[in-house]
Design a protein that fits this description.
By secondary structure, this protein is α/β, with parallel strands linked by helices. It has one domain: NAD(P)-binding Rossmann-like Domain (Rossmann fold), CATH 3.40.50.720. It is 41% helix and 17% strand. The chain has eight helices and seven strands. It has a seven-stranded parallel beta sheet, sandwiched between helices. Strand 4, helix 4 and strand 5 form a beta-alpha-beta unit. 47% of the residues are buried.
């Protein structure tokens, strides 16, 4: 990954920060965005260029991509579990944060790669709930499922154009990121004690999957990789 210019949107969170550190250790020039938690972001100051950005704002997306003028890779980790009591509000919030901002950023990144003739890779991080049915997950899962489907459409639109690849990764239950609260509450304990999964996922499990898709000169596009230890089986 030496000298690759990679933007990791949401790269300062529990899952994204693992990828940022991995890429930086391999010599990549990493730009990591955060929305509001500046204190947490500063912990990555030595590994990445930090950019405050709300993906729902066009100017913020442009500023984020501007920070990597030789963009070769984009990984979008941003998301929100939309744990709000009003269902209609949850649907709107999820659409904006889990779908609209990420897919707009992905399309804008692809356009920049295409215009510059730069081969590159885009990875959109969704959730296992976009690949399987979990009661009560409509607001969150529907937006993420739309993100996965749109990633594959974008991959087809980019096929053969400057070698731009687009893939999606769907994490399962992880000990970092948004699933931490659910694990602490015991929500997924039956899957562990019942032998459905051997352990909870780690941020490194997801990072390795995303890194695979970001590999220069890769030969995979339009695919969805579920990293969940077999839970959705």
């Amino acid at each position: 990954m030496h000298d690759q210019q990679i933007v990791v949107a949401g790269g300062t969170g529990g899952l994204g920060s693992e990828l940022v550190r991995m890429l930086a250790a391999e010599g990549a020039c990493v730009v990591a965005s955060y929305r509001s938690n500046a204190a947490r972001a500063e912990q990555l100051a030595g590994a990445a260029t930090l950019v405050q950005a709300d993906l729902g704002v066009a100017a913020d997306r442009a500023r984020l991509l501007d920070a990597a003028p030789g963009l070769t890779g984009l990984a979008v980790y941003t998301g929100n579990p939309v744990r709000v009591p009003d269902f209609e509000e949850a649907l709107r919030l999820s659409h904006e944060v889990n779908f609209l901002g990420p897919i707009l950023l992905a399309r804008e990144a692809a356009a920049r790669m295409r215009e510059s003739g730069t081969p590159g890779s885009i990875v959109l991080v969704a959730t296992m709930q976009a690949a399987a049915l979990f009661p009560g997950s409509t607001a969150y899962a529907a937006a993420k499922a739309a993100l996965v489907h749109s990633a594959r459409i974008l991959a087809k639109e980019c096929r053969g154009k400057a070698d731009i690849r687009v893939n999606a990764v769907c994490p399962g239950v992880n000990q970092a990121g948004m699933a931490e609260a659910s694990i602490a509450a015991g929500k997924y304990e039956p899957y562990l004690t019942g032998g459905v999964i051997p352990r909870y996922g780690r941020a490194s499990d997801v990072a390795r999957a995303v890194r695979f898709f970001l590999e220069p000169d890769g030969y995979v596009t339009g695919q969805v990789l579920t990293v969940d230890g077999g839970l959705t089986l």
